[in-house]
TrEMBL record:
Residue ranges, compositional bias (Acidic residues): 571-580
Chain residue ranges for the region called Disordered: 104-142, 560-615
GO CC, one annotated term: cytosol
Cellular location(s): Cytoplasm, Cytosol
GO terms classed as biological process: intracellular protein transport; small GTPase-mediated signal transduction; vesicle-mediated transport
Family per record: Belongs to the Rab GDI family.
PANTHER family, per the entry: CHM, RAB ESCORT PROTEIN 1, RAB GDP-DISSOCIATION INHIBITOR
Protein name in UniProt: Rab proteins geranylgeranyltransferase component A 2
N-terminal signal peptide: none
GO molecular function, one term: GTPase activator activity
Length: 615
């Protein structure tokens, strides 16, 4: 691939259009080097890898505007391909761009604007087109959050008031979307970070958080009786809510208090352990609206498949995450979910990791006697030896995966002209669970992002819909889209449709969910080859973190997983090992791995000097 992150990546609008075209065509890649098999010895055999990515299917995109008007429109600020990646390259290119493309007015504090090196976090490049550097002005004020060494720090800037006039939202043309395409950072997978989840803990512990900024999810929504309404979550929200009667407020607070320490009161739920959570809620003297809020917007679990214990655990997790960084349990990374894998790439590169984009692999080389993998052969016909090999599931051929049965995820991404629930502030990050129309079908998770998340242009919203697949993504998700949004492109529409947000552009696709596959199901895979899955359908990231740590501990059982990095001033370089004549990837001895040089990969080893009082 020519971009980081695989199916975790984020794209600009033009980058996503290229990705769509690539997945709709699905052409096989030919071997660049036909005589690579000459590198295989007599006592060796090969395991060929897949030449085609089969993880994405049924890709359908739709434009609900005048697409012809954008034929000759080019993306503003498009940059030539540059051999740089990360904040350091971005800063250099930004200075050149300011002359040609004056930046929009910034809402950042004055000191932060004048001294970008002291600002919280970085302005990271997006994963759109590999090493292409992405420049995006922070022209939206927002509640941004930066992960510090041991805690998250919340920004002080206030959200901008709504500019939606009585006449309705500002009309956005498709040509504007194309022109402002670099304002978009569109995720292939839609997730949020639980404020007390495994990923937040890992980002803080490993100090990878230095490369990212976050924004609070500002509200939890519910879809009930054909209307979207806000769900009160915290104690303050409950007692300030106008949609709940006083009796309901007391009922809700009593039940949520019980959920926080339900393990201490087994007599209250043990008779319902074999029942569903929905059945248990009916026994708790809760009104139908409260049952709906708890089931779909707080626990966010299935009405038919979730047991009482699983529902109580999910509710407790939600409540424990409240209040750590805001009034909801969730955080969203600025510039999109695709920033997270790139942040780990940057930290790895600082300490010697080397990433090769546009560099495909032909096969694994296996020793016949030991049965262990010895090397790979790349598309240049170069043989690269190693002790361990980590392979993403999509690279394995059909012959290896004959016993594997995959689940699928249905995804849709929409660009809309207004929020599903307009309020005084248009800068909202919302999560909405739409319950299934028919029992047995999955609920649909909807995440709506505003422009201050740096994922879409001003006056638009980016909406992600996700659910486990029953059919194609369009068949699964279009009924929900029709409930929440106006798909009618004609001028004359009913009053009810006029109140709904208008969809400007949409894409549907199915993504393979390879999480939970037992390694033993892969046929003929050597013991030192480890398989990692693509994204799962869950809202959080716990599955990926657990999988990464499990694989790491299997390879290095005595090592700590993602330890805190040393301070740059404590690193001592061995001048003999990093001499330029010995390694083409080396830094100079004086170079310190500050974020400004984060993408320079050092080929030499590093020795860490620890102080006596260092933890």
């Amino acid at each position: 691939r020519n971009y980081y992150g695989g199916n975790w990546a984020s794209f600009s609008f033009s980058g996503l259009l290229s990705w769509i075209k690539e997945n709709q065509q699905k052409t096989d890649t030919s071997d660049d080097c036909e005589d690579w098999r000459k590198l295989i010895l007599e006592n060796e055999e090969v395991i060929s890898l897949s030449k085609k990515d089969k993880t994405i299917q049924h890709v359908e995109d739709f434009c609900f505007g005048d697409q012809d008007s954008a034929e000759d429109v080019e993306e503003a600020g498009a940059l030539p391909k540059l051999p740089i990646f990360g904040a350091s390259g971005a800063e250099r290119v930004a200075q050149e761009l300011e002359k040609e493309y004056p930046p929009m007015e910034s809402a950042l504090p004055e000191a932060e604007s004048q001294e970008p090196e002291k600002a919280t976090g970085t302005k990271p490049a997006s994963a759109m087109e590999g090493n292409d550097t992405e420049i995006t002005s922070k022209n939206e004020s927002c509640h941004s959050t930066a992960l510090g060494e041991s805690a998250l720090e919340l920004g002080k800037t206030e959200a901008a008031p709504s500019e939606i006039s009585a006449q309705g939202p500002k009309k956005i043309m498709y040509s504007q979307i194309v022109r402002e395409g670099r304002r978009f950072n569109i995720d292939l997978v839609s997730k949020l970070l639980y404020s007390r989840g495994l990923l937040i803990d890992l980002l803080i512990k490993s100090n990878v958080s230095r490369y990212a900024e976050f924004k609070n999810a500002t509200r939890i929504l519910a879809f009930r009786e054909g209307k979207v309404e806000q769900v009160p979550c915290s104690r303050a929200d409950v007692f300030n809510s106008r949609q709940l009667a006083m009796v309901e407020k007391r009922m809700l607070m009593k039940f949520l208090t019980f959920c926080l320490d339900y393990e201490q009161h087994p007599d209250e739920y043990q008779d319902y352990e074999n029942s569903t959570f929905a059945q248990f809620l009916r026994t708790r003297k809760l009104t139908p609206s409260l049952q709906h809020f708890i089931l779909h917007s707080i626990a966010m679990v299935s009405e038919t498949d979730c047991s009482t214990l699983e529902g109580l655990q999910a509710t407790k997790k939600f409540l424990q995450c409240l209040g750590r960084y805001g009034n909801t349990p969730f955080l969203f990374p600025l510039y999109g979910q695709g920033e997270i894998p790139q942040c780990f790439c940057r930290m790895c590169a600082v300490f010697g990791g080397i990433y090769c984009l546009r560099h495909s692999v032909q096969c694994l080389v296996v020793d016949k006697e030991s049965g262990r993998c010895k090397a790979i052969v790349d598309h240049f016909g170069q043989r690269i030896s190693a002790n361990y090999f980590i392979v993403e599931d999509s690279y394995l051929s059909d012959s290896i995966c004959t016993n594997v049965c995959y689940r699928q995820i249905s995804r849709a991404v929409l660009i809309t002209d207004q929020s599903v629930l307009n309020t005084d502030s248009e800068q909202q990050v919302s999560i909405l669970t739409v319950p299934p129309v028919d029992l047995g079908k999955p609920a649909v998770c909807v995440i709506e992002l505003c422009s201050s998340t740096m994922t879409c242009m001003k006056d638009t919203y980016l909406v992600h819909l996700t659910c486990p697949s029953a059919k194609t993504a369009r068949e699964d998700l279009e009924p929900v889209v029709q409930k929440l949004f106006n798909l009618n492109t004609e001028k004359e529409t009913e009053n009810e449709e006029l109140e709904k947000p208008r969809v400007l552009w949409a894409v549907y696709f199915n993504m393979r969910d390879s999480s939970g596959v037992d390694k033993n199901l892969y046929d003929g895979l050597p013991s030192n080859v480890y398989v990692c899955s693509g994204p799962d359908s869950a809202l959080g990231n716990d599955c990926a973190v657990k999988q990464a740590e499990t694989i790491f501990q299997e390879m290095f059982p005595t090592e700590e997983f993602c330890p805190p990095p040393p301070n740059p001033e404590d690193i001592i370089y061995d001048e003999d090992e990093i001499a330029p004549e010995e390694s083409g990837f080396s830094n100079s001895p004086e170079t310190k791995p500050e974020p400004s040089t984060e993408e320079s990969s050092s080929g030499g080893s590093t020795a860490v000097k620890k102080e006596d009082n260092e933890e």
